[in-house]
Specification:
Blueprint lengths: L21 E7 L5 E9 L6 E9 L6 E2 L7 E6 L5 E6 L8 E6 L6 E2 L5 E8 L5 E8 L2 H8 L1 H6 L12 E2 L3 E2 L6 E6 L5 E3 L8 E6 L5 E7 L11 E7 L6 E2 L21 E7 L6 E9 L3 E6 L2 E6 L7 E2 L2
Antiparallel strand pairs: 1-2, 2-3, 3-4, 5-6, 6-7, 7-8, 9-10, 10-13, 11-12, 13-14, 15-16, 16-17, 17-18, 19-20, 20-21, 21-22, 22-23
């Protein structure tokens, strides 16, 4: 989408690039009445990119700007009652994003979380009381360096590389901390770490329908960097405790990729090598009611018990 062009030129010029606005991450409200999305723009004077949230009715009507200011507001997510939008923004601190809440009826966005590190995927619990967040803490060495002006000016003078996967394009050197799951109270903002391990990352959290458990994927190989496809599905109580492994491969040569989503939201989650090295089988996964995980193969349906670990059974 673009803003109106007041000139009469028939050709696109470099100046026209400032008129382009990119909508992303559209999310329909649970009641089906609204769509919230991020709209990215470029400020002509500063050359900086900003993103604000907009809402549009699903019935005939005009979209309206939901958040204001020169900020980067992203990842909007509706509360289950469609009355609040949670989103990630660095509006109060440029180099540190937090989760903010914005009432649908209007008002000012207010900061919910107060964490030091990088925020990832997050989801409301079905009862609307909590938010599960994928979060990676800032390394202790970096926090210490930020407090000391001399160390801050000097920067990193040496790095101890102790893993195979230590650097990533567009990110640079990876921190020592890993991605873990945290629970955020939707009213108080109190953050509680749910999972922790020195070399394991927890990804793609999804709530059970009763808001009591959380499913996620993780690679628990002896060295995940040397076995990057060894992902499995785990569950953990929302109140904390030991995570339970819910899947196991019947074929040790299979390659697995599991991607849990919310109730009724199937997504490609697993690619398994068919017997004899033939074409891959693509499976889908979603959370169902009555403590079942639904896993769909291309031409058949599979179910997996939510509360215990076993090999999936074919439903039809």
């Amino acid at each position: 989408m673009t803003t109106p062009n007041k000139t009469k030129s028939k050709y696109i010029s470099a100046q026209d690039l400032y008129r382009f606005q990119l909508p992303t991450d559209c999310q329909i409200s649970p009641d089906g009445n609204w769509v919230v999305y991020s709209l990215k723009r470029v400020d002509r004077k500063s050359e900086k990119k900003y993103t604000n949230l907009w809402v549009a009715p699903t019935s005939p009507g005009q979209p309206r700007q939901f958040t204001q200011g020169n900020h980067t507001d992203s990842s909007p997510r509706w509360s289950p009652d469609s009355q609040t939008v949670a989103f990630i923004s660095g509006r109060d601190e440029e180099n540190q994003s937090q989760i903010y809440l914005m009432p649908m009826q209007g008002g000012e966005a207010y900061k919910l979380s107060d964490l030091k590190g990088e925020l990832g995927a997050f989801r409301w619990s079905p009862d609307g009381k909590k938010i599960v967040l994928q979060f990676r803490k800032t390394d202790a060495e970096e926090l210490e360096r930020e407090k000391d002006e001399d160390k801050k000016k000097l920067g990193v003078v040496a790095r101890h590389i102790d893993r195979v996967f230590f650097k990533l394009d567009d990110e640079g050197y990876l921190p020592k901390e890993r991605w873990h799951l945290w629970i955020i109270d939707a009213k108080t903002g109190k953050a509680t770490q749910l999972t922790d391990h020195a070399i394991f990352d927890e990804n793609f959290p999804a709530w059970s329908p009763d808001s009591k458990q959380i499913a996620f994927i993780s690679n628990h190989a002896k060295d995940p960097d040397l076995d990057p496809d060894n992902f499995d599905l785990f569950t953990v109580a929302a109140t904390g405790g030991t995570a339970k492994k819910m899947t196991r491969s019947r074929d040790q040569n299979s390659t697995r990729f599991i991607h849990p989503m919310g109730v009724g939201s199937p997504m490609p989650v697993r690619m398994a090598k068919a017997p004899g090295g033939r074409t891959c089988e693509f499976l889908l996964f979603r959370l169902m009611a009555k403590n079942l995980l639904e896993i769909s193969r291309v031409n058949s349906m599979w179910t997996h018990p939510w509360k215990r670990s076993m090999t999936c059974r074919r439903a039809h």
